[in-house]
Specification:
- There is one protein chain.
- The chain has 211 residues and is mainly α.
- Strands 1-2 form a two-stranded antiparallel sheet.
- Helix 5 crosses helix 7 and helix 7 packs antiparallel against helix 8.
């Protein structure tokens, strides 16, 4: 009985040994080790094409107030808090010394080295201009003058560029007075580039001062 068992066991081992020397006709393909080095693998994800590697701007600022601030800051100084231009205008939003004094800031060096103060100064000046130009915002908003749709945010940006008086002259003459700053940038340019932003939360404050 023992000999019979040894006989069948020997047959099974022999068959297993012989089978291990052959591969099945339809064996699975190992793509990791059997790729010709001259062939290219095409991937579904991620894409090999550059067009798939686009930049995503996060966060999306759109026409919100944060986008408004950043757009003006980039135009004025490329967003640099310590920028001083050739005419002596200071900071991220390029304030003149006399403008700083009008909103209660008398130390220009401290202003230049204080980003938080610069942000407060920008909002304060907007509040001051919104009060000074409240009638013009009410009367002209929505109109198209010299090809530009007039909006509150555009008016406030233009006032930041050239003061309330330059905006009033432009609107009163319906664009015939081409008011420009010392570098040649026009009030019309700011009315157009910074129009349509949300500045509703800016309060109109008479003689606004930085708190």
């Amino acid at each position: 009985m023992i000999k019979k068992g040894i006989f069948y066991t020997s047959i099974l081992l022999t068959v297993a040994f012989i089978s291990s020397g052959f591969k099945p006709l339809f064996s699975p393909i190992d793509f990791g080790s059997n790729v010709d080095e001259n062939e290219k693998l095409l991937y579904v994800f991620p894409s090999q094409k550059d067009i798939a590697n686009f930049d995503i701007q996060v966060p999306f600022k759109g026409k919100y107030f944060i986008g408004y601030k950043d757009a003006i800051a980039h135009k004025e100084s490329q967003g640099k808090y310590k920028k001083i231009n050739t005419l002596g205008y200071l900071g991220k939003y390029q304030f003149g010394v006399s403008t700083l004094k009008s909103i209660g800031i008398h130390d220009s060096d401290a202003f230049l080295n204080n980003p938080k103060l610069q942000e407060k100064a920008f909002v304060t000046l907007l509040s001051k201009h919104k009060y000074d130009l409240r009638k013009y915002i009410n009367d002209f908003e929505g109109e198209v003058i010299d090809g530009v749709k007039i909006t509150e945010s555009g008016i406030l940006a233009a006032a930041h560029l050239g003061g309330s008086g330059s905006v009033k002259r432009f609107l009163n003459t319906r664009g015939e007075r081409k008011c420009r700053d010392e570098y040649g940038t026009s009030v019309k340019t700011y009315l157009k580039e910074f129009g349509g932003f949300d500045t509703r939360r800016i309060k109109a404050v008479k003689n606004a001062k930085v708190q």
